[in-house]
Design a protein that fits this description.
The complex is a heterodimer. By secondary structure, chain A is α+β, with helices and mostly antiparallel strands. Chain A contains four helices and eleven strands; from the N terminus they run βαβββββαβαβββαβ. The longest helix of chain B is centred in the middle third of the chain and has 22 residues. The chains are: A alpha+beta, B alpha+beta.
């Protein structure tokens, strides 16, 4: 089990974990959740935000296969809450060098429920770890309300950014998550904290 | 009105007792146009000491409700087990098939002064289902424009109550070995020990042994119960069982 931190992407990737991530993203967001998203070669879910500014946190197994991942977008550039979903925020969407947007939180459907739950915990842990390592203080994101209770139950500090609204992909709302030095302890108290050894260095896009 | 909800979310984070939470809820539900709230796990509260239950329903109604052990069979609770998004009670007939007894319960609630309502389901994998309901006094109109905010209040209030509970009771999760989990998954799919033994390439006695250990870990003595417990806490998934 490894945590891969990948900076940016350059087209359909050769790396197995990343390729599988885009395939699993299609399976989850297009096939299962029916989001209206572009699909590349009928296999990969990749959009305009999958560019050199995106950072990917990927949990991969020993064979370098994708188990789960999240895409992080800087809020100092164009991002979802700043553009497509701005109306979900009561005030201006939080932005700045220490504010990062979480998008495409994805768990591979090719795994069992138990494995997905373990991956979910590792990915949430990786998000908190990465924020503390790199000076991110706030994560923002758009969440389907159906997941809200689960996101709150991780134990980290969340707050709503505006009233929820109906959309083509269900009732959605904007959230902010504050990451502080005590976040790992809060996650641990809820049985979530599970740190996976990160791959040696932060990889740069080719 | 959203700033009021923001303040509520901030305030409940610092609360430590259920009485304080009840007070905060009583104040905000009134501002959202409701009279009553009920935040509860869907279990028979007289039997489950760790269950959450905070409400300001009229005394007579709450007592009758508990005496009938309605925690898990109440139509509103049943409906909130089949959806993850808040729903007005007017949608109940779309969500669950209402029985004569359900209609009697709803009528009786009205007689106790409880009118239209809105329920926010609260599902945390591996824990009892729960919900946070808001109700108007009978005869008063529900403020539809506030329902998205009620959805947020319900979710954050439930998490606050959950945190308070966790500080008092902290049961460790049940852990099965991979082999035990596989046996439980096949048992849940209706396979006999003999069939599971063939599927996994081990002896029938070994399968029996794995299942017995799984029973012990959940503290149950039956095949069906171990399957239900493992489904409930997410050790096995519904899709694992229903897959063809």
């Amino acid at each position: 089990m490894t945590l891969i931190v990948q900076q940016g992407t350059a087209g359909p990737p050769a790396d197995r974990a990343i390729r599988a991530m885009f395939e699993d993203r299609k399976s989850v967001f297009v096939d299962l959740l029916k989001w209206d998203l572009p699909v590349l070669d009928g296999r990969f879910e990749l959009d305009a935000f999958d560019n050199e500014h995106a950072t990917y946190l990927i949990i991969a197994d020993e064979q370098n296969d994708h188990l789960g991942s999240a895409r992080l977008l800087p809020t100092t550039r164009e991002h979802l809450l700043g553009s497509l979903f701005a109306e979900l925020c009561a005030a201006a969407p939080p932005s700045g060098p220490d504010v990062v947007e979480i998008t495409r939180f994805c768990l591979s459907r090719r795994r069992t429920a138990e494995s997905r739950r373990a991956t979910r915990n590792r990915l949430v842990t990786a998000l908190a770890w990465y924020a503390l390592e790199t000076g991110i203080r706030t994560y923002t994101g758009v969440a389907e309300l159906a997941w809200l209770q689960q996101v709150l139950a991780f134990g980290w500090e969340c707050r709503p950014l505006g009233p929820p609204a109906r959309s083509s992909c269900g009732t959605i709302g904007a959230l902010a998550i504050e990451i502080r030095p005590d976040t790992p302890a809060l996650l641990a108290a809820n049985g979530i904290w599970d740190m996976v050894e990160p791959a040696i260095s932060i990889r740069q896009a080719a | 009105m959203f700033d009021r909800v923001e303040a509520f979310v901030r305030d409940v984070r610092g609360l430590t007792t259920e009485d304080e939470l009840a007070q905060a809820l009583a104040e905000i539900v009134e501002e959202l146009g409701f009279r009553y709230f009920a935040l509860t796990h869907h279990v028979d509260v007289r039997r489950t000491s760790t269950a959450i239950r905070i409400h300001n329903y009229p005394e007579g109604w709450a007592q009758w409700f508990d005496e009938q052990s309605l925690g898990s069979s109440d139509p509103v609770h049943r409906a909130s087990n089949v959806t993850s998004i808040g729903f007005p009670w007017s949608r109940l007939p779309e969500l669950v098939a209402l029985t004569d007894k359900d209609r009697q319960i709803l009528q009786l609630a009205r007689r106790h002064g409880i009118g239209d309502g809105f329920t926010v389901p609260a599902h945390v994998p591996g824990e009892s289902h729960g919900s946070c309901s808001f109700a108007c006094a009978a005869g008063e109109r529900m403020a539809d424009e506030h329902l998205p905010l009620a959805q947020l209040v319900g979710a954050f209030a439930f998490e606050a109550a959950r945190r308070m509970r966790r500080m008092r009771f902290s049961p460790g999760p049940v852990q099965l070995t991979d082999r035990q989990r596989e046996c439980v998954m096949w048992a849940a799919r209706g396979k006999t020990d003999w069939e599971i033994a063939r599927l996994l390439g081990v002896s029938e006695a070994t399968v029996g042994e794995h299942l017995r250990h799984a029973y012990e870990r959940y503290g149950v003595g039956k095949r069906t119960l171990v399957a239900v417990h493992a489904l409930f806490d997410g050790t096995i998934g519904f899709l694992d069982v229903l897959r063809r």
